Amino acid sequence: MAIATAPDTTTPTITLTIDGRQVSAADGDTVLEAALSLGIDIPRLCYDPRLTPVPACRMCYVEVEGGREPVTACTTKVAEGMVVHTETDEIAAMRKSVLELILGDHRVSCPTCDKNGDCALMDYAYRYRADQFAFGAYQPPPAVPNFSTGNEAIAFDPQLCITCARCVRICDELVMASALTLTGRAAEARVSTPFELPLNETSCVLCGMCISTCPTGAMYERGAVGQGQCKDLESVRTVCPYCGVGCVLELNVNRQTNRVVRVTSPVGAVPNDGNLCVKGKFGFEFVHSPERLTTPLIKENGEFREAGWDEALELTGRRLRELRAEHGPDGIGFLSSCRCTNEENYLLQKMARTAGATNNIDQCATTCHAPSVAGLATSFGSGAMTNSIAEIKDVDTMFIIGSNPTEAHPIIGLEMKKARRRGAKMIVCDPRRTWVAEHADIHIQHKPGTDNMLINALMRHILDEGLHDPEFIASRCEDFEAFEANLEGFSVEEAAEVCDVDADLIRRAAEMYAQGEPSGIYYTLGITEHTSGTENVMNLANLAMLTGQIGKPSSGVNPLRGQNNVQGGCDMGAMHMSFPGYQKVVDEDVRLKFTEAWKVEMPTNKGGRIPDMVEAADEGSLRGLYVFGEDPATSEPNQAKVIASLEKLDFMAVQEIFMTETAKLADVVLPATTFAEKDGTFTNTERRVQRVRKAIDPPGQAKPDWEILSLVSTAMGHPMSYANAGEIFDEMASLTPSYGGMSYERIDEVGLQWPCPTPDHPGTRFLHEGRFTRGLGSFQQISFRPAAELPDEEYPYILSTGRTLYNYNIGNMTQQVRAIRQKQGRNFVEMHEQDAAGLGVADGDDVTVATRRGELTVRARVGQRTRPGALWMPFHFVDEPTNRITNDAFDNITRTAEYKVCAARVTKAAAPSRYGAAELS
Amino acid sequence: MTRLGSADELFAARADLAAAADGKKRVLVCSTGCLAIGARDIEAAFREGIAEAGLDEEVEVVATGCHGLCAMAPVVVVEPDDVMYGRVRPKFVPDVIAKTVQGGEIVSRLTYGRDEASAHPRDIPFFEHQTKRVLHNVGRVDPQRIEDAIAHGAYGSVAKMLSGMQPDEVIDEVRTSAIRGRGGGGFPVWRKWESCKGYAADERYLICNADEGDPGAFMDRALLEGDPHGVIEGMIIAAFAVGSTKGYVYVRAEYPIAVRHVQLAIEQAREWGLLGEDILGSGFGFDIEVREGAGAFVCGEASALVASIEGRRGTPRPKPPRMTEQGLFGMPTNINNVETFANIPMIIAEGGAVYAQSGTEGSKGTKIFALAGQVKNTGLVEVPMGATIRDIVFGVGGGIPRGREFKAVQMGGPSGGCVPAAHLDLPIDYDSLREVGAIMGSGGMIVMDETTCMVDIARYFISFCANESCGACAPCRLGNVRLEQILDRICEGQGTEADLDTLEQLADVVRSTTLCGLGQTAPNPVLSTMEYFRDEYLAHVVDKTCPAGVCKALVPPEPALAGSEA
Q1: Which fold has domain B24-79+83-119?
Q2: Domain A112-120+134-288: assigned CATH number
Q3: Where does CATH 1.20.1440.230 sit in chain B?
Q4: CB contact, 8 Å: A130 with chain B?
């Protein structure tokens, strides 16, 4: 299949002739690149366009007229007028001999090899009729055990390895994990790990990029072994269901077994260029989990029983209709799912506003990036990442705050690594020593919850030093004077004290950011998940406007969105205050537009956010809830309180793939589908709308979510009927100006970035060029408000929560993956070694972390990742739910919870954790 | 210890040191190569004997570097009369002290010819046919005392240079000298320097390649062990010329004495103000660090060497960019071999024009060879470029022992080739050797006679390369092993004529498709032996005999057969 490539930004300036055909290439391109652009397939085994060429396989020799001898195409740069022959008799003979040498060092076992059908060595061997015995007989190296033995993710077979070292190079150069290495010399050179350690004991991040680049079957997915040879697998191009990067995936499907056997990604694909992380590569086992819901369930006498679709739909429709009638528009609520497609989010909010006649709709952006949407909309006029992922590599100075990209957004992390290798500067503000912090020019390890003090100090210093951009401020922004006056009250010294960092670091960071050519801000939930989350965001907007670091390529304010379609969920209007495309509910013209389109009067009630709904349920004003692909009982703070509130509802229906904690509380559970079983679109963090494609049939009676939503709406009395997801998309696009120019046809291979208002609009790479969406950028006056719950004598530590590389959100998908469970199957708490020493806690000991909400006993990870006095826990483990102890204090504007700061106490556990010491070791 | 603040201070110090040493008797004991055959005991015996005789004040015992005539090891020279003894044992020492040191007489049984006539190097053919210029101080100075080196003239060229020469003038002298790199490639030295100097950079690095790995070659080792200051001096001059402030000596860890001596010399040079900041008060600063290799032959290749210093796996990378553009840590880097650096002080001292008077049209100066194999006088020899193979093997080397017949000489190490008797009168220089299928290489010279099997020799060298391939590029990693397997088969009597075709084909593939010099030259010994000694190969595969009688699995050669039948 054709591979979509990123738009080429370099202009071809050089003309050369390859095999009699003229081709234009950019200065600096290689002959191989130029030949490939013509479709001339020069054989190559060690080449990966993602890597610096190391001409090791010696297969890509070509003849250049006038040259003394053949040259390797992968390292020879194009030159004007060059005449290249790629397949002379001499070259072919040479190539065949080299190939025979390589083939002679490979166990030719194609009939039993999983990679059969996707093996470069096999293809070339056939093409050149290579004889594996041409120069002697093969003596295989010992096959097992090796560093991959027992690893659930990666299987390495040294007998299939041709020592091209692509795996080593990609691990080293691109991933920068350096888990793989070559050991031994000469014919003994073999791929291994440092000291032959098992993979999971090395710096391996299980991204599987070694597999992605392997030209043979030497590196392969353990779970795919024996599940079907590549030649028999059908590849379905779709989008990753995890974080917001939106990596293009290919689900390799065995049609005979209706199973996704392995996941690959085409090199050249936007935005990830074939790169994946552990979740994208291995995290799909949940699709085939025996724990999937396969039939509608109805709760009777506290127990679920299997039910037919008709019965479950009728009950759901009737109960919601009744509760709406009885208790008004705010008597029922709808939670949409950022894990699901745009089409489905569109349908859910449409269903809520038509069949439910309410604006009481929300989704999990409230849990994470609602402050970005609200804050950036206030400052700039649109709440999304201003730049593109592809622009990161060209940035001069990265300002990363409250973000752990190499774990939470690993492919964006790769782009940052790319920029870093190119020489970009990196400032990281983070209470933890993350990978980017360790590799930064400046790491400001400030106290959790002091971001605005820090940002104000940065701006104070920029103003003091005259490093601001008066022209930009004057021509592009407003409200500067009040903003400037507000900053009078701040000083670098005071901030240094409050944030507990060196004042000089603040000054240097301010200077480095202001002087970057250009600089880009990247942030994540370390900024938003605070009671001052929206203010934090607006203050970052202030920082960018102050220095004119916005509205340019690679330069702006970039919230890295956390879920595959949280951008789309917001775009689709699955929120109380806006219709699709952020068209405001309070705007009467807008309501009229949707009334006409949907043929029903639009509701005017205000509606609320998730915490509002939880509180309303607790108070008794909310009586019915429809939950679509959300698990607030696990993801919301102060779990006990959430569960108690949900239990009070008269009726709750949950549309899910697994029996989540929330689903357990439901009256009706509807079996839904995963990303692999349906069509649609996701919008990634850079506003790129991409196609999701059905690869396999859903299990049992499970139905695509858009179908379920149509059926529920119909059951509630507002009939909906769509033949396919594309119909929904078209309807949505016709009502959503920023998506107005999009269609499935246009985004078939490469997605489009909104705004894309017309069918001929190319989409928008970066926002706010020349003019902010709202006209003038609005400076906000931000003061410093401490977090809601600060440490005291009883609870002396600050606890923050977050995401790890290996797991995802509530963990119900990732914990189904053997490779991930093997790597990270249990909850833990990171604490500083000084604190641990004071408590007599050693790395690996069980500790009890307690807050005013409850306590959890988990394993301690002792080290230097956190500040002294700070604790950090992931939230991925449903059996040890961190949200049991987090604080239900919320952002004053968007009601996003302050997951990043609460007061906690740590004690060495009296009894071992629920897993016991033996099992942990 | 004196920190020298100017060139004049160096010259003054040299005069003082030379005066202090003047007229002193010295016993020079080779304490490098000869260590292997008991030199330490001999040195101790001399010290003890001299002390007992109460001669401490007037006689100095010096542990020196190699005198060259390794066939006579252990070697001792008594100065000022320049009497050379070999095969010395501790029990002979009292005799030498009494007769030669004190009495000025010759101990005949210890001389080269076991007679008085060959008591002095000038009387020994081995030395008579040599021109010791680069090796001049090796064996003469105490390599562990900078004072002795300075007394013998070390750092005079640095002083001269820093007394007013400009970097371009230094490069001009080197250009005039026309010296070519002694590491094997024979690239004009000045061109490399000028190229390195030409790239704008915050730092330029200078590297002395002392990763001497050819089997049987020990020229660089002898220089570093015997006269480290000569090499350091050359490096300082090069650094000044290219504009480098930081240098490295990359030396194999298998040379512990060289490592120790060069390390010591660097420390002493630093103390004397000859390395570090503001050398001789000139404002020019340069310092050197020693990095030890870990035993990989391929790390003698410039880009692999650089990778190794950077702490990475020693693997060559494609060029361009050349090292002079992007070398160590991405900076312009000038890499020369030990012997090249050791030539430089001479060029500055006497001028490039004088230097260029010796040698041939295309190859100037002298060349050091490690002479080994079936030759009487094995050892370290230095001859002017243009000397013939015959001069070296029969003149310096004294010919083939036991009346056997000269068969070939293997030149240039594993990358080189075998030169047959037909080319005995070939004047040796970079270009002539290439024409006959060998290379100058770093200077290994292995003499072979009729008892050497050329197939076995080819197998030996290909096995060496097969083991020393870095493993990165496929044809080198795999092809050399296959070549070795085929040669194994031939030596074991399992070969066929078709194997000879495969050998040639595969040798050509390896030569033409590998990434770096190691692989490109690895098949040379196979190809040159096949060219000059094809009969011997045919004897192995067709007649199943090994004419040299080396390959045990094959029938012995004809004469032996005939004898047994009679």
Answers
A1: Glutaredoxin (3.40.30)
A2: 3.30.70.20
A3: 454-558
A4: no
Q: Is 60 exceeded by the pLDDT of residue B415? A: yes
Chain A contact probe: residue of B484, B509, B510, B520 with most A CBs at under 10 A:
B509
State how far the Cα of A287 lies from the Cα of A321, in Å rounded to an integer.
Answer: 33
Residue B559's pLDDT is what?
56
Q: Tell me which CATH code domain B454-558 carries.
A: 1.20.1440.230
Residues of B with CB under 8 A from a CB of A: 296, 298, 313, 317-318, 466-475, 477-482, 485-486, 502, 505-506, 509, 512-515
> Which pLDDT score is estimated for A8?
46
Task: Find chain B residues with C-beta within 8 A of A136's C-beta.
Answer: 482, 485-486
The mean pLDDT value of chain B amounts to: 93
- Domain B146-355 coded CATH 3.60.21.10: no
Domain ranges for chain A: 14-87, 112-120+134-288, 297-368+565-753, 370-559, 797-920
Secondary structure, 3-state, B257-280: HHHHHHHHHHHHHHHCCCCECCHH
Cα A559–chain centre separation: 12
Do A185 and B512 lie within an 8 Å CB cutoff?
A: no
For residue B24, what pLDDT is reported?
85
* ipTM, interface predicted TM-score of the complex: 0.90
Max intra-chain CA distance, chain B: 83
- Radius of gyration of chain B from its Cα atoms, rounded to whole angstroms: 25
| DSSP annotation of A153 | S
Using the beta-carbon criterion (under 8 Å), do A97 and B515 form an inter-chain contact? no
Torsion of CA A744, A750, A754, A757, to 10 degrees: -50
Query: Does the pLDDT at position B485 exceed 70?
Result: yes
Option in A58, A181, A185 nearest B475 (CB): A58
* A444/chain B closest Cα distance in angstroms: 29
* Mutation target among B202, B513, B518, B520 for the A interface, most CBs of A within 10 A: B513
* B contact test, residue of A44, A58, A190, A422 with most B CBs within 10 A: A58
| CATH number for the segment(s) A297-368+565-753 | 3.40.50.740
Instruction: Measure in Å the smallest separation between the Cα of B496 and chain A Cα atoms.
Output: 14
Backbone angles phi, psi at B154, to 5 degrees: -60, 145
pLDDT at position A50: 96
pLDDT digits 0-9 by tens, B302-349: 999 999 999 999 999 988 899 999 999 999 999 999 999 999 999 999
Relative to beta strand A624-628, strand A332-335 is parallel
Q: What is the pLDDT of residue A1?
A: 34
CA B358 to chain A, closest CA, distance in angstroms equals 33
The distance of A58 to chain B (nearest Cα, Å) reads: 6
Which CATH number is associated with domain A14-87?
A: 3.10.20.740
Nearest-by-CA chain B residue for A182: B313
Measure in Å the smallest separation between the Cα of A186 and chain B Cα atoms: 4
Listed in order, strand segments (DSSP E) in B146-252 are 205-210, 246-252
Q: How far is CA A723 from CA A131, A339, A728, A729, in A?
A: 54, 22, 9, 12
Residue among A25, A8, A9 nearest A17 (CA): A25
The per-residue pLDDT for range A290-335, each reduced to its tens digit, is 999 999 999 999 999 999 999 999 999 999 999 999 999 999 999 9
Superfamily the domain A370-559 falls into: Dimethylsulfoxide Reductase, domain 2 (3.40.228.10)
Across the interface, of A54, A72, A187, the residue whose CB is closest to B477 is A187
A587-644 residue pLDDT tens: 999 999 999 999 999 999 999 999 999 999 999 999 999 999 999 999 999 999 999 9
Are residues A12 and A24 in contact, defined by beta-carbon separation less than 8 angstroms? yes
Asked if B506 and A102 come within 8 Å (Cβ–Cβ), the reply is: no
Looking at the complex, does the CB of residue A183 fall below 8 Å from at least one CB of chain B?
Answer: no
Chain A residues with beta carbon closer than 8 angstroms to that of B477: 163, 186-187, 189
Fold of B366-449: Ubiquitin-like (UB roll) (3.10.20)
